[in-house]
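From the pipeline queue, job 12 of 40. The input is one protein chain; the requested action is below.

Action: predict structure.
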Amino acid sequence: MKRSVNSFSAAYVSLVALSGTWASTALAQQTESEPNDTPAQANDVGCNVVISGAISPAGEVDTFAFTLDQPRDVHVFTTIAPGNGNTLIDLIASDGTTLIETDDDSGDGLASQIGREAQAAGRYFVRVRPSGTTTATYTLTIRCPSYVAEVEPNGTSTTATPLPCTAEGGAGNITGSSDADCWSFTLDEPRTISALVLTAPANWDHYLTLLNSGFTSMQTSYGPGYELGARVTASLPAGTYYLRVSTGVNYPFRYDMSLLVEGRTCISFFGVTPHTGSSSGGDLVHVYGFGFGSASDLTVRFGGALGTIVGATPDRIDVRTPAGTGSVDVTVSQRSDSATQHVAFGYVPPTHAARYGNVNLALGDREDVLLVNALAGDEWSRHVTLDRGQPVMLTMSQPTNRPRATFVLYAWRGLPNARTLTVLRGGGGTMVFPPPFAHRSPQPIAIWDNTSHARTFGDATLPSLPAPSVIFRRTHGFRNPARVTFQGIIEDSGSPNRSGWSLTNAVILSLR
């Protein structure tokens, strides 16, 4: 259903003007990229974005695409400085030809705007054309606000539908004279809030009431309709509050209630790096996003188990994983706010996790520096299988955080197992086989060492040069079938421990 431009878009645009200081979905800034005259050439810009564009040369058009993951309201409008032309915008369906709606001058001055309610999930196009002028310079805003759907019954404080930090408000239906919808929200510190109700049909009158944690009314606003939605604004201390939407004399009606909180930053969670680790736990991983506060205010759960936070910045949390199995959701919580990434981390057996090494782990993702024929092996087992007689080249690359790195590399016969795993002291990590300084069997059959630390790492049995370097090359390969496991220790400015050394990835070479 389409709401009238005046009662829907104009009221919403007045709220968007506050987006610089009021918390809502962040508006990404983009610039159009030519050519984008047709849907096939459309710039894929997504939702909640402001695009700087220009209709030039004379008479051209600009086309942009966005996708709705679920039914959402859509608000599209241009902004034009005086003397910079006149625009006309079209909202087009996924086929690239069906015109859903067009608008010329419903925006501010000669600008255009379209407001659609509950637009179905799918891909859409916005076309910007000149209107009455041959050229124009403009910004185009595409908004797809995130409203929480009410869950009935929700007429009391105990049944109120919660509004998480990232929600821009709620969407519900008033079905009768006694129906009232309650929404709850929590402030972690004093903030100024503003809530606005818009109804469909647009002329249905209604009430919006702000209530405190004891469910006592603090402020009530009447909305008669016709562009005048009920609105409450208040400066509030930290705590839990409620918003109640109720009917006047007209019903039933559907409504959207926007909630804006001044200066609040909601946490946003992008993902976990590395995304795999040992089922025994203890791996250092990084949670990326923004809006993170101090470590003392944060928790990170892997499935239902708490990780151990070792550091936090506004856009990254460093955390040690708990023990676990399988693939799990990861949830970041900060006071009353939380965000979840589904199936964001996978646990693997310790025998496999040790093969991944920990190069660069303090700075970001693990890096594979040890390669056989330019391969680190498959992601799970780190096996590389070659035929006898096939050329073999073993190389060591330096970590990307260093121009050069010394290393020691070991080779052992056979396949590592739980009994051969060796945990190094000082948080150095776990090696797949015991190195010489562990004084355990089985010991390496070959050592390449250019570190000048032979007393610690073991006497070199074969020559080598610091990374990046070729360790050995056999043009005609090997005659006999064999299975050899390689792993080393390398200088690393991104080492997860204070030693400045990290464990390389292991490679298991099978000759058949």
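Job complete. Confidence is low (pLDDT under 50) at residues 1-25.
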